[in-house]
Structures are given as C-alpha cells and as structure tokens.
Amino acid sequence: MKLKLVLHNIRSCYNVGAILRTAEGLGVSGVVLSGYTPRVHDANLLPHLRDKLDREIHKTALGAEDLLEIYSSGDILTDLKKWHNQGWQIVGLENNIQDERLIALSDKGLKERLSDQVVLVLGEEVEGIDDSLYEIIDLFLEIPMRGQKESFNVSVAAGIAMFELMCYNE
Questions:
Q1: pTM to 2 decimals?
Q2: Around Cβ 127, how many Cβ atoms within 10 Å?
Q3: What is the domain partition of the chain in residue ranges?
Q4: CATH code, 2-12+25-35+68-167
C-alpha cells in the first residue's frame, strides 16, 4: 500500500513533528500540510518565524522533517479531488460521527475495502476533520475506544492508524 497523509488544521507543532517522525518510520510516501497546520521550512514566513516553527517541529520530528516528501497545499479540497481522480482512495480518521462510511480500524473486513493507494486525512485536534472535506472522503476509519476517554491525541491516533494500514502490506 502507498500511504499519503494530509494534516489539515493541526494546531500543535509538537503533534505535527510527532506525526512526521512516525510517518517516516513507517515508510509513508508523503505528507501534505494544509489549512493552518504549521509548515516546516516555510519560505513564505519571515526568517525568525520560520526558524521558531522549524525548531518546535524538530523537537518531536527529530530530523524526520528532512527525510519525508512534504507538500504544502493552499487548496486541500482541490488537491484531494485531483488525487481521487488519479486513483487514490481518500480515507478520513474520525470518531464519534454518524456516517455509513464509518468503519472500525479493527474491523476484519477493512482490508478488502482499502485500495492500494490511500490518502489518510487527519483533522483538527478537538473538532476533527473539517465538514467541507466530507464530500470527497470515501471511507472513515475509527479507532475503537475501550476506556472512558472519547478520543486519542491526534499524533497517537495517527500512529495507530498508520501502523495498522501499513501492516496490511505484509
């Protein structure tokens, strides 16, 4: 499976860095930063702001930010539609939604529902994926929660989902 990540409206540089480190370790083919997600090596920022963001992301990415193919999207919906037209399956990582496209990451039938090219969309830490992106998403994945909390930190959830999806290659 080829796996590409979209980090849309992730606020925390530390979450971005942690996701980048995990993505690199699992062999993700590329990461797309969109919305207000902090960019690494952002040439559009003033040098002192770029350096600050780079330092913060580096604290948890530990160099993975320099090993991954990272793309900054100015219009993520258009990019998702383009990738969808190129044969990529668009998959959102969500929880606590009512949608017939929702399937648990632990569902035994998930493997048969996945394509060999997946774009995994991650949304804002508290609110999740922006509703405006729902129209292009083919399938939503949910991580079953067994404790009292309703969700994981976005970097932890991303790691769980990436690991499970990449294991389908084996």
A1: 0.95
A2: 9
A3: 2-12+25-35+68-167
A4: 3.40.1280.10
In angstroms, what CA-CA distances link 133 with 8, 36, 116, 121, 169?
Answer: 10, 15, 21, 9, 27
Is the pLDDT at 169 greater than 60, yes or no?
no
Catalogue the E-assigned strands of 1-155.
Answer: 2-8, 30-34, 70-72, 89-93, 102-104, 117-122, 139-142
Tokens of 54: 């780079």
Give me 136's structure tokens.
Answer: 């292009």
Within 10 angstroms of residue 136's Cβ, the number of other Cβ atoms is: 18
Tokens of 38: 């902090």
Q: For position 59, what pLDDT does the model report?
A: 96
Per-residue pLDDT at 14: 97
pLDDT score recorded for residue 150: 85
Location of structure tokens 């350096």: 51
What's the rounded Cα separation, in Å, for the pair 78 and 76?
A: 5
